[in-house]
Amino acid sequence: MAFLPFTLGWHVWGSFVLFCLLLLFWDVLGNSLGGKNTDLGVPAITPNPQFSPLSLQNKKYILVMVDPDSPNRANPKHRFWRHWLVSDILGSDLRVGKIKGKVLTDYSPPKPPRYSGYHRYQFRLYRQPAQKTIALSPEDKESLGAWDLKDFVEDFGLGHPVASTQFLTKNHMD
């Protein structure tokens, strides 16, 4: 039987790779810097996520981007502020870095309030259950900050993310 470093078997290693191979590349040098400015006066940066070639071509995925530290880490009363939500993303599109699907929440770049400290911005990728239509309730559509990610995941039977990553940032004036 072949073993990898730390005596992990191939099955365990394959699962580890599937869960950890979400690579996030920010297209800083591309056309995104010429886009709209945020209301903070800094150029908007558009995410260009690249996912593992292990994503299954014939499956659908849901991408969620949230700020779990809103309005600040000491008092995150708007935990999981929704910055982006896309469902029905084909695995074949993920393999080539295309996020095409049903946009449930338009992308909103990070805008941590002044003096709120560092914020984590998390990307979570879930496998979408077959034949399942994903939608937001009317209440959820109205409020980005009162959204309950845990309820959303449970309501649609999404389970654990198949990939995730995060980055830290703070207001550029701090």
TrEMBL record:
Parts of the chain that traverse the membrane: 12-29
Keyword Transmembrane helix among UniProt keywords: yes
Keyword set, alphabetical order: Membrane, Transmembrane, Transmembrane helix
Keyword RNA-binding assigned: no
InterPro entries: PEBP, PEBP-like_sf, PEBP_euk, Phosphatidylethanolamine-bd_CS
Pfam families for the chain: PBP (PF01161)
Protein name: Phosphatidylethanolamine-binding protein 4
Protein species of origin: Zosterops lateralis melanops
Organism classification: Eukaryota, Metazoa, Chordata, Craniata, Vertebrata
